[in-house]
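Support reply, case 0932

Customer input (verbatim):
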Amino acid sequence: MIVIRQIAKPEQVLVLPLCELLIDTVHNGASVGFLAPLSIDRATRYWQQVLASLGDGLLLWVAETDGRIAGSVQLAPSQKENGRHRAELQKLFVHSEFQGQGISTQLMSAAETAARAVGCTLLVLDTLAGSGAEAVYQHFGW
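Our regenerated output:
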């Protein structure tokens, strides 16, 4: 069973499993702003920064199954006065062991639902053209 939950405040217990998720994603060729080999120290710094930034400017969801982090996604609503209608979808990750189980669909749904709830009518994202990620986003109608 897959559980999607929003992380509203820093949970330090999540840092190591999120690092493992990020390292798996990068080492499997995803273009997510890091280069392989990605060290645990670099991944830890990244996730600590994300967790410290949670709030109105950054939202985070994780997908959990059997006590493991299987995926995550972030949503960054614009903080500009004239941009309150938009948000950026960021860092949709699904661990290679859990791909093909609909986790990315559930994570995207959570982020899109939250965006609508806070009045965001325009969502944007950045991904590598021709990548597997592009195909995933196209599947969602992006």
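We compared this against your earlier run and they match. Two observations from our side: The beta strands are 2-7, 59-65, 68-77, 86-94, 122-124. Residues 103-117 form the longest helix (15 residues). Please reopen the case if you see a mismatch on your end.
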